[in-house]
Amino acid sequence: MTPRHSAAQLAALLEMPPPTAEQTAVIEAPLAPMLVVAGAGSGKTETMASRVVWLIANGIVEPRQVLGLTFTRKAAHELAERISRRLATLTQAMQAEGLTLPPGLERGSDDLIGQRPVVHTYNGFALDLVREHALAVGIDPELTMMSTSASWQLAHSIVESWDDSLELDASPATLTAALISLTSSLADHLVTPAQLREHLQQIHHHLSSIPLQAEGRRRTTPRTVASALRALEGRLDLIPLLERFADVRTTTSALDFADQVALAARVAREVPAAAQTARRLHRVVLLDEFQDTSIAQLRMLADLFGAGHAACAVGDPQQAIYGWRGASAASLASFATAFASPEQPVLQRSLSTSWRNDQAVLAVANRLAGPLRSAGGGVTIPELQPRPGAGEGACEIIETADEIAEAHAIADWVLARRAEDPDPAQPSTAAVLVRARRQIPPLVDGLTSRGLAVHVVGLGGLLHRPEVADVRALLTAAHDPARGDALMRLLTGPRFRLGVRDLAVLGRWQSHLASRRRSDRDPTAHDDAEDVTLLDAVDDLPPREWTDPAGRALSATGRERLLQLQDLLRRMRRLLPLPLPDLLTAAVRALDLDLTLLERDGSSRALADLEALREHAAGFEATARRGDLGAYLDLLEISEDEEAGLAVAAAGEESPDPSAVTIVTMHSAKGLEWDLVAVAGLTEGTVPSYDLRRAKTDEHGRVRIPADGWLGPLRTASVPTALRGDAETLPELAWDAADTQVDAEALLEQYRLAEGEESLREDRRLMYVAVTRARRRLRHLLLQLLRVRPPL
Fold first, then answer.
1. Predicted model pTM
2. What's the pLDDT score for residue 689?
3. Lower CB count within 10 Å: N or C terminus of the chain?
4. What is the spatial distance between Cα 365 and Cα 739, in angstroms, rounded to a whole number?
């Protein structure tokens, strides 16, 4: 049918600015599958809402026939609200002009219930699909959803209760993180534990059967091959835990977030009625932030709606930064293939005007992303263009000697820029972006020392605050006698301040107790539980007359402080059955932190970090299967420098102080924007993630840096490349079972160098996101550069 209203006419009717040519091409596109590559700050949400209004205003679809999917509840709510407001305004405007209302709007703006577009999160839509068709795939429809806390705690309990057959030399925290990570990766790529086991065993058998290298008179496995074999063995050892974790979830009809989409993909594939219903109900589907979708989500949508369906995927491959949680950078290109039909190819459109950044910021972003655009994988990625009237902008680059000097430089820069604000009562918003959470503490110290208020987003940064670290150390020492590191923090911290001499005597006393215990037991029967810990030495202090081999005894002050710590730990152990929030409060009071902070800072705001930790513990306990201090402490350990875990505050949560400088990781900053943005800690090993000491030069003279890929750290274990749904776009360990003459070391080195290139692309995408967080009013973007050398 011929549309009655153009995008420009509708904009005028709604008293909005006219759309650009690019926006018009998206808004007025025919009812067909469409891929929209939308650069950072290019107004994709606005354009999506305008397309929905155009389709409805022209009677092409009714409001209830539109489905929108996005990632967060907040984004889903904002998109739904924006569309609903537009439709209400459109109804009123058309009635005022005497125009005929399209189907679905005849009842007027006050009666749109049941006629509104449906907007869900991807996971929420998947869960509804599973619940509706559970019986058709043999699932109990009375299933329950586990929270992140409950899922972590269940995995942790499986790790803790496993028998001695688990030979992995890793902490319960690391093993739990690995179990969660690998479970999620399997679900994201629709791979079973049995398939994973078979694949890993094949690679392990092949690599271990390669002839050993001669090294003098010995024959040894090359270091690279030995490292790969250990990684393979670690993952193989995890598979029984994976299977147990899956069995418990199935038996109890409890799903975690990874299960939702995997089961929904199964429903879409195996239940024809599900696809028929979805196509009938949702004639138009809007897929937001599609670069962050997983292979399982793509397959669910493709099987559900099918080739040729009017699905519109909107995203930016340059912002595909969530590969560690299952997202595929090739998702947009895969959409173009999955939704194309012989009769209806996928339309491709782009949005390239940045409505946020000034010219200098765009120049930096475009230069960073240049290699990403040239390797689009079949998708045309436009270069960002400045909006009409955009300012010149400026990017300041400084080089500092260390992290503290860097933090002071950022603070001075923020203060100088705010001094230029036209209204001092409304200071420019400011943020400091970092790659890793371990970078946050010196930034907090440096900014606060210059008088700036700071708002740290996320749990990881909170854990590095001294007061929080002390409370955590006390709980850890009370819970686990083997954690001498936690006890050492208490011994040397501001509460007890044990001197070096007394520490040395205490260490000698621990050795003396261990020696005495060894002489009292059967030397052939060793039990780790009988080892003497530092906590044992504190619990059983030496007699006053005891001296170490050097003739030193505990000082009177040292003994008094150790007795205080001894009493404190015993009291805390009696309180361990308390609920987590109450236990944290007890630890704060036991260390006198509340009084100390109030006396030092004279304000209840000094307790904000401790209160945030208490709220986090309350959230964990409220959504977990049961209160478990051990599981919670292990979660904190993993959350120190990982994007996994539970956030204290959502990334978009506003600071109570509008003048506070937000400190947040680059990953968590996606979707946000500020007036002033500093990108901190650009050092080798962080951003960029490579270490030039490992660099190699290939035959063409190019510098190349290896990376471990899926053979990397156990805690971030993931599906091998060959089993991934997007394997054709990623480096692969190209082993061949039939080739027994292969040089395994050369093969692994080739793979690791290819992974290094992929790691560099990830760095580029992350920096592109960081740079483009600067709001349109920005005139300065500060980049901290420390020892960054080619090839970035």
1. 0.89
2. 86
3. N
4. 45
